[in-house]
Amino acid sequence: xxxxxxxxxxxxxxxxxxxxxxxxxxxxxxxxxxxxxxxxxxxxxxxxxxxxxxxxxxxxxxxxxxxxxxxxxxxxxxxxxxxxxxxxxxxxxxxxxxxxxxxxxxxxxxxxxxxxxxxxxxxxxxxxxxxxxxxxxxxxxxxxxxxxxxxxxxxxxxxxxxxxxxxxxxxxxxxxxxxxxxxxxxxxxxxxxxxx
Length: 196
Hints:
196 residues, 7% strand, disordered N terminus
């Protein structure tokens, strides 16, 4: 006899509706290894919903919006079949869309365009390429590692949202530590010459 939530070989879970409070959110026997592998093996494929969502952004944006963004209240049109979407009223028009992108690397493009994207990620890149300046300080190496891991993480997940407030504060502390003047000075004072 099958337990509720178990699937036979030919059955699949509904693509949408696996959220909290749903009867079929998690099978009773725990997380299925095959489903977990499928989730992470499709990170870079066209099947990943996050990349589909990024595609909706690039389909919706025009040249000016790509350069300067849609503003911090800007949204992206998505099909009515897209579950995270909602009705959005903008300039007296109502359309179905989303206010936030699930891939962190595309969120600055939505909100501030290429200008904000280069400003935001350009700052991260300046800190990341200057690793040699931090190699003698263990705290600086740790801060550099946190920046690198979060930049990598943002290729599949977002940094923007209320649940990430503590993480954003941690990144701010890391950037503050790496921005200390002692790491940026190019010339060191000469050693004092002792009289002979």
